[in-house]
Structures are given as structure tokens and as C-alpha cells.
Amino acid sequence: MTQQRLLPVSRRAFLAGGTALASGVLASPAILRAEPAAVKVGLIHPVTGFVAYNGQQSRLGATMAIDDLNKAGGIKSMGGARLDPLLGDSQSKVEVGVSEVEKMNEQGVAAYIGCFQSPVGIAASQAAAKYNTPFLIDVGASDLLVTRGLKNVFRLKPGFGVCVDQGMAALDALNKGANSMAKSAVIVHESGEFGTGTSKLLSSKLPSIGIQVKEVISHDNPTRNFDNIALRIRSLAPDLVMMSNYQNEYVLLARTLYQQKVNLAGFYSFLGGGFNYKFVKEMPDVSQYMMDTNHWFNPKSEKAQALKKRVEATKALFTYELYLSYSVVMLLADALEHAASADKEKLLAALSASTFKAELMPYGPTKFVNGQNQGGRAATLQSLKGDIEVIAPAEFASAKAVFPRPKFT
Question: For residue 207, how far is the Cα from the chain centroid?
Fold first, then answer.
């Protein structure tokens, strides 16, 4: 038998080998430890169709928030579970929104976020209720979303009822400051649930602040020409035109009235779908002096300003759809942290008891009553010199309102 030669081993090599062995033994449990299951979140927005821009902005805000949460370590109470977005396109169609709910349910979704349009949100959240799955409304103004007794629906932002009340108070103060010179209005609204519901509220409340409604004009979605409506408004000669419609129609009507030089004391919209940075930057002359009561970020929030810079660095615009969707994802993440589980019953309980602080928004602490956050509020805005300024409430104001607007010459 040949005797095997033993080579001398240095102390350094022995220690190195021992350290490597120990590291391998200690590391093996980490290798075997399973990653926590991802929490699937269904994002349903109209990323194609006539409000595609708005839907794309909502999706951008939601996915940015999910990326930020995942990079920060996921849901800590669930072992660092990541959020996994399932992307759905409602195509601005109710039946497609419902179909997306059903499809995502089969994929094991823990919660839904959507849907920008109230009719789609109403139907989609009703479909989600069959499975007791939380449905968080990011954008959707109709109060029908939260008045149907559904226990799975939560809306962080205020609906059109609160927005109209707050906007009406701001308009009253503005008009009184101008010696109550505005005495009449024409309301123009899209014919869906959002515009119809808002116009009914306006019609019932404007007389209480001394403003007569001369006419209510509805239009279809989409509408490609507002020449006849502009002529009708000119013949009625109101002091105010009040609009509640989506992006394209809002901008087209404003542009048509500007081109026809229809003189008014003011354009004052409620939840105007086109009153945003896109409109103001692209059409500064058309938008100048227009006012809107809408969802807006808190201009005094450092986190809001930091997110605004990040968004604008990508050449995108910081529209309300974006930061509302971002905030709603953060609300869901906060509820998951408190529930320490994606179990639907536990998650619904955590949402119902939420005291989440929406730091991007001019809100108080979150408190849900029948699914509606009582801490949300709107802001009154005005387009001035190619920018959007907050003119009310006073504690968030960044500029003084110009009212009445200068007349065309």
C-alpha cells in the first residue's frame, strides 16, 4: 500500500478554512429560508380610451409608490413582503372594469385600487364585494361609491358632496369680496354619473349664495365640438360658467369659449377633469384666471414637493391622479403593516380602523365612516401666469385670487 503524504497546513490556512466552514454552516438557514409571499394588488385604470391620460397618471402614481415601498423593505410586519402590482386596463368601460376584477381575483389579488371613473369604480367595487376583497378608490367623485353599504370600499379623498360644499363656501367668499357682482351661472357637465351628480348639487346650492342658474347643459363623452354650446352660453350671458367634465371636453370647451371671446366674470369648475398642469402649461392664455375646486397636494409639505420634483424630472406632470394614487397605495401599505397579514378580514378591519396620515395632501388624520375618509378636503385653485396656485383654504394658500377676470378687448 502506498502511504499518503500529509502536507503541512499553516495556521492561517487552517483558520481561513474553519471560518469558511463556519460561514457555510451559519449561512445555510438563510439559503433555505423562504421569501415571504408577495401581496398582489390589482390596479385598474383606463390606460386606453378617451381618458387614457388620466388613467396613465393614476397608474404611474400607484406604481411609483409600490416601487418606493419595495425598495424600502416591503411590509415589515410580514417579513418584508413585497407588493406585486397586477395591471388592468378598464378601457373606460364598465364591463371591462368588472372583467378585470374577476380576472385578478383568480390570480389571488389581496386588494384593488382604482378606477378613476365613478361608473367603473361603482361596478368594479361591487364585483369585488362578492369576494370580500378590499377596494380602495383613488380617483372617483360620485358619493354612490360609499353610500351603498359595501364594507369593502374605502375612499381616502372627499367625494363631490364635500367638494361642492367646500368650493361653494370659497366661491361665496370670493364673490362677496367683489361686492357680490356674480349673480348668474350656466352649468356645463358630462352626462355620466360624475357630471350629472355634481351638476344637481350645484343647481340646488347656488341659489343659497345668491347665484341664479340660467341653464344646465349636458354633453356626451366624447364630444368633439363645443361651438353650439359656446354660442348658447354667449346668448345667455351668465356671469359664471361652471364645468364638471373630463380632460378632453374640459379643455375643448375652455378653448372654444376663449376663441369666441365669451366675456365672463369667471370660469369656476368643480372637480374639473382638465384643470391640471398639462392644461395650464400647454394653454396658458386659455387657462389664465380659470378656477377650480379639486383635489390638490399640500404645497407646504416637504414630501409632496420632493415627489413633485422626482416626477417632473422624468418629464411627467404632477397631476392629482398621480399623488392620489400614490397616497392610496401608502394607505394600503399602512393597513397591511397593522394587519400583519393579507388576510381579507384582517385587512378590512385594519382599513376600517385606519389613522393613516396622508402627508402629501392637505388632510387631517384618516377616519373612515361607512368607507369615506372624514379627514379629506379639497382646495380651490386658480391658473395664474402658467402655473396653478392655491387660493383657498387660507392656511394652504400660495396666491391671492383674481376675480372678476379681466374682460376680452
Answer: 31
Distances (CA, A) of 281 to 100, 104, 305, 390, 402: 34, 37, 18, 16, 19
What separation in angstroms does the CA of 50 have from each of 58, 142, 223? Answer: 15, 19, 10
Task: Clarify whether residues 239 and 207 are in a common domain.
Answer: yes
- Least Cα distance to 44 among 61, 60, 59, 63 occurs for 59
CA–CA distance, 272 with 270 (Å, rounded to integer): 5
CATH assignment of the domain containing 349: 3.40.50.2300
Per-residue confidence band for 5, with pLDDT thresholds at 50, 70 and 90: very low
| Full residue range of the structural domain in which residue 269 is found | 161-294+380-396
Q: What is the mean pLDDT of residues 237-247?
A: 95
* Pairing mode, strands 212-219 and 387-392: unpaired
pLDDT digits (tens, 9 = 90+) for 257-269: 999 999 999 999 9
Same domain, 308 and 337: yes
Give the phi and the psi of residue 381 in degrees, each rounded to 5: -125, 160
Cis geometry, peptide bond prior to residue 393 (ω within 30 degrees of 0): yes
Number of domains in the chain: 2
- 388: β partners: 383
The three cell numbers of residue 43 are 390596479
Asked whether the beta carbons of 191 and 181 are under 8 A apart, the reply is: no
Which of 232, 235, 229 lies closest to 255, judged by CA? 229
Residues 97-114 have a mean pLDDT of 98
Distance CA 214, CA 183 (A): 10
Kindly state whether residues 183 and 276 are assigned to the same domain: yes
One domain, residues 200 and 221: yes
Question: What is the average pLDDT value for the chain, to the nearest integer?
Answer: 92
pLDDT confidence of residue 395: 87
